[in-house]
Amino acid sequence: MRPARSLLRAPGGLFRALTRQPAPEPPVAVAEPQASPPGPSTGIDRPVARCLPGNAHNPDKESAVSNAEASSGITVTGIDDRYSSLCQGFNQRWTAHPDYIKVVRSTADVIGALNEALNSGRTRITVRSGGHCYENFVANPGVQVIIDVGQMDRVHYDPGMDAYCVEAGSTNWHNYTQLYRETGLALPAGSCYSVGAGGHICGGGYGMLSRQHGLTVDYLYAVEVVVVRREPHGAYEAKAVIARRDDDGDLNDLWWAHTGGGGGNFGVITRYWFKDLPRPPINVWLSAVAWDWKGMTYESFSRLVGNFGRFCAANSDPGSEYADLFSILKLTHREAGKIGLITQVDATNPAAGRDRLDAFLTEIEEGVGLQRAELDVDLGEHPQIRGLHKTPRLMPWIQATQTLNGSGDNRRGKYKSAHMRKPFPEDQIEVMWNFLSGTRDGGDLPGDDYDNTGYANADALIQVDTYGCRINALGSQETAVAQRDSIMKLQYQTYWTDPAEDGVHERWMRELYRRVYLDSGGVPVPASADGTVDPDAVTDGCYINYPDRDLGSDEWNTSGVPWYRLYYGDNYDRLLRTKHTWDPHDIFQHDQSIR
Question: What is the reported pLDDT for 56?
Answer without folding.
Answer: 30
